[in-house]
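Reviewer 2 asked us to include a model.

Predict the structure of this chain.
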Amino acid sequence: MATSSSNQVTIILFCLLSTIIFNSSSLVMCNSMMVHCDEKDESTLLKFKHEVTDPSGVLSSWSSDEVKDCCQWKGVHCDNITHRVTELHLPCDTIQSDEIIDKDNEKPHCLTGEFDMSSLFDLEFLSYLDLSNNDFKTIKYDFNSIHNNKTSNDSSNIHYLDLAYNYHLFSDYNNMLHQISHLFSSLQFLDLSGIDLYKEIDWLQSLTSLSSLSELHLDDCSLKDINPSLQYANLTSLKVLSLASNDFSSILPSWLFNLSHISYIDLSENYLHGQLPQTLPKFHQSIESLCLYINDLEGPIPDWLGQLDKLKALDLCYNNFDGQISTILENLPSLLIELRLYSNFLTGTVSEKNFHLLSKLKILGLGSEYLVFDFDTKWIPSFQLQILVLKNPGPKFPSWIYTQSSLEYLYIGNSRASFEPLDKFWKFAAQLEVLVLVNNSINSDISNVLLDSKVVIMQLNNFRGSVPQVSSKVTHLELSYNNLSDISPFLCQKMKGKRNLETLFISDNALSGEIPNCLMNWTSLLQVNLGNNNLSGKIPHSIGSLSRLIFLSLEGNMLFGEIPLSLKDCKNLRYLILGENAFSGTIPSWINQRIKILQLGFNQFSGNIPIEVCHFYSLKILDLSNNKLSGSIPNCLHNMRSMISPYASMDVFKILSPTKYTKRGFSYVYFRVVTKYMVLHFVHSICLVDLSSNNFSGTIPSGLFMLTGLRSLNLSHNQLMGSISQHVSNLTLLESLDLSNNLFSGQIPQSMSGMSFLGALNLSCNNFEGKIPLGTQLESFTNLSYAGNPKLCGPPLTKLCQQDEKLPNEKQKREEDDDDDDSSEVWSWFFMGLGIGFATSFWGVLGAILFNRKFRHGYFRFLNIFYDILIRCFHSPYWSEYCFG
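Predicted model (structure tokens):
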């Protein structure tokens, strides 16, 4: 080793002298003399390869047998002269994959397992490390090893560290940021986005030791405390700060406005409230981009915005700002390229006069129900937009739009204007890459329209006729909530060139007839939603041609027959939603083991639950309610490990959708849960099991009580018997439990009194006996939760238990008679209500969800901001703010 290093140094000195004296060709010759990289670096890389799991052979070239020079290994960059490893580029490429990329789903082709960060310290000259978008589980730190290898100090030379979107990653130590700041004190770039850092209470304090840090990305990290009262943060070199999609619920922090060199700030999608400061911030000479959209900020937009001479992007949409729009627009700096102010409480009139200084605009978003648009019909703007969002633009169509020859993205929502002449509009729309029309008064037959934009989203416009034809350019088509009646011409249309359609959402229309057997024409499809129409017949066998299919919803139609065997060929299917039809036969045993949502409720399926269900390790929602299923509940349900994680219900269903408009690379998959009171639409995977209204018998299997991530469990209206195990209290996150209308007996477990999240409980119409356990949780429910159990006693029932009897016999008898009368009334109510309401499944989820602040806030905010997400990620989901009324 010593001889090799000595020779290497000699060669290096020779190369330097040769290059200086002669020319660059000498450098090429010298490089060829250096056979391979440093042996110590090679050994360290091989140790890293041995530690991690590499299911798809990303590191297959890391072998001296394959490639002798480790500087030529994939992802390895070396210094041209010393041949020491300086950079590792190993992000996982998910763009070329059809896999679902979720917080809770593994990435089967990415690097995974654990790695020892201390081993990388042996790469003495490593300055750049990118392991983003992989599926690492654990970072280990061997501090003794680090100390032994770094005699001068305990800090690495790494300047760039990117571990973003390793969703399952956690550290051996609770304070990951503290360890990182200690180990990598020279960091200039840090990205941990998508990693759950909710335990990082002092995250800001941990980072202040990174005096060289210039770029920080902690998006979607579940951070809660932004230290609003702190006046100064020792981040003097910071230029880029991105803290979007966290859980900050305070006023804007003072330290933020005292960062003097910051150029980019993104605090969007949080719960920040209060006002922007009225005094000029210290970043007034450096800030170029300020993004505060989707918060609860209010008050006036301050005048100092006009003094931000370098400001190029301002996004304040979806807040509660007020003030006169004309004053705001005329005060903005002239360098502005991006401006989004819609969905606030701004008032006044918008006209061409407000834009005479904004000639550089490329992105413009305006509109609210309080603004009036009054543009001259002959106005030709001085700017050429690429993105335009207009909400509530008034009764006149803004004809200046036709002057925007560079426009790529157009959103028009809540317009009362006539789009006539429609031929002119559709011709103009053909130049667009993204067309979004929502809740407008167009009211037109679009059977003969040819759609040519890459993404087309046209909801709630009262379109009628057949589904229009599309060109091969279209990848996303969403026409939900219209009055379209025929899908056959669309599915069976002939097309020039390769079809590229990936998303087809035409739910909630008037489609009728059978689904034609033409699906083999659309093999590019990833997501299909034809739910809530009048479709009949069987699912065509050509469904098996959709080998890339991830999401399929046909709920709420009149489809019948068995689930076709050809669906087995859809090996990427993760979301299967077929509820509210007339499907029959047995539940197939061949359903993809990686299924995440299986909703088959309200059909006519019979037979047993196939044992293969126990191997659905990614399943989050199992809804088999209101069928004709029988037999016992399998005792192996605990193998559905996605329902075991305590964080399972905090995850979000996402599908990768790379586009140039995508800010963070994902679109959201939304799904519905039917409750007694309303239809809920969720983005969060809330972990539900609903087997209600079948003919199941036997006892509740013990494995069911091991699904500790469950939020809702409904086993009502079956023939289940036996006692309830004390282990039910293992379901600590359970928010809704319905065991009503079965044959359960014995006492209610005392352990249930400790289920603190339980917000909805129904144990009625069984044979429970004894005293209802004491405890705030169980006593907080009304007598309706326990009615129809004659042998139950104690609060909240009026019937006293024998050990608590203090009343004279006659008085007691009268009270028991009264209780019987009450019970009779309750029985009547339950038979009427349960037959209609509870049988619709998940009856208690509504209350449970709305009592949970994070779900409540997130759900209702989603209703208001849904289409804005489309601007940043145009493979959109299918539920809009307008769908919820």
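The first strand starts at residue 76 and ends at 78. Residues 1-7, 649-684, 819-885 have pLDDT under 50 and may be disordered. We have added this to the supplementary material.
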